[in-house]
């Protein structure tokens, strides 16, 4: 069963305005790689040049922030829901 990935509005221009994508992958990193394969350019918006998650991007697996788990190595089980949430600043 594929994982559902929720795409935030600012990244939808890279996904042809698709709100959710279903992909296979056993870790968050694999899902990002598979997302990049399907929608070239999206990985550069999520990860820095060293392959680490950008600090202003938050990714949640079933409501849990991957930074408090295993970051991109966080395991993703079949049927999981992954949300990509860009940080918003203002004042």
Range of strand content: 15-25%
- Which descriptor suits the 3D outline? globular
The average pLDDT score comes to 94
The major pleated sheet works out as: 5 strands, mixed
Q: How many alpha or pi helices?
A: 2
CATH superfamily: Beta-grasp domain
Head-to-tail CA distance between termini: 42 Å
Strand order of the largest sheet: 2-1-5-3-4
CATH fold-level label? Ubiquitin-like (UB roll)
Computed over alpha carbons, the radius of gyration is 12 Å
Tell me what the CATH architecture is: Roll
The count of strands amounts to: 5
Helix/strand-derived category reads alpha+beta
Compute the number of structural domains: 1
Order of helices and strands: EEHHEEE
CATH class placement: Alpha Beta
Report the uncertain regions: none
> Percentage of helical residues?
10-25%
Task: Provide a descriptive summary of the structure in words.
This protein has one domain (3-86): Beta-grasp domain (Ubiquitin-like (UB roll), Roll). A 5-stranded mixed β-sheet has the order 2-1-5-3-4, covered by helices on one side. The mean pLDDT is 94. It starts with a strand and ends in a 5-residue tail after the last strand. A hairpin with a 2-residue loop joins strand 3 (57-61) and strand 4. Helix content is 18%, strand content 23%. The chain has helices spanning 28-38, 42-46, and strands at 3-6, 20-23, 57-61, 64-65, 81-86.
């Amino acid at each position: 069963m594929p994982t559902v990935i929720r795409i935030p509005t600012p990244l939808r221009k890279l996904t042809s305005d698709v709100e959710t994508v279903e992909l296979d992958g056993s870790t968050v990193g694999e899902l990002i790689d598979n997302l990049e394969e399907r929608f070239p350019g999206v990985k550069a918006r999520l990860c820095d040049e060293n392959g680490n998650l950008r600090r202003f991007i938050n990714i949640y697996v079933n409501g849990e922030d991957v930074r408090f788990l295993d970051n991109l190595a966080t395991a993703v089980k079949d049927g999981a829901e992954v949300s990509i949430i860009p940080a918003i600043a203002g004042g």
